[in-house]
Design a protein that fits this description.
- The protein has about 130 residues and is mainly β.
- Helix content is about 0%, strand content about 35%.
- The protein has a two-stranded antiparallel ribbon with strand order 1-2. It has a two-stranded antiparallel ribbon with strand order 3-4. It has a two-stranded antiparallel sheet with strand order 5-6.
């Protein structure tokens, strides 16, 4: 008597046993298919799971983005926050007035005494002026 394979498993025609789809693949019909980029699966599953925001997929693993970088759900790469911004909770936020950032950082740097921020640069105050 023929029996249905369990979810995430396949068999060949006339097969006597079912085989689990390997990690990074899922069973659809009687085929093991590769998970889409940015998605992962353990061995023997019928579906793949998207990597959460702030992570990226590499080698069937969801890895955390580096400091100062962000990603969307199902991401395959992380993007550095641009100059003048910093990463907080997987969001690029604008530096506060008087602070600068080269981009790709998790914090901004305050301009030192005697300098002011303009266009994400700390500029020297004019003679006779202070900050």
């Amino acid at each position: 008597e023929c029996k249905q394979c369990a979810q995430g498993h396949i068999s060949s025609e006339g097969g006597i046993e079912c085989t689990a789809c390997s990690a990074g693949k899922y069973a659809e019909g009687n085929e093991c298919k590769q998970c889409a980029a940015g998605h992962v699966s353990p061995e023997g599953t019928a579906s793949c799971t998207a990597c959460s925001a702030g992570k990226y997929e590499e080698g069937n693993e969801c890895k955390q983005c580096a400091e100062g970088h962000v990603s969307s759900e199902g991401g395959i790469e992380c993007t550095a926050c641009s100059a003048g911004k910093y990463a907080e909770g997987n969001e690029c936020k604008q530096c506060a007035a008087g602070h600068v950032s080269p981009g790709g950082t998790a914090s901004c740097i305050a301009c030192s005494a005697g300098k002011y921020e303009e266009g994400n640069e700390c500029k020297q105050c004019a003679e006779g002026h202070v900050s």
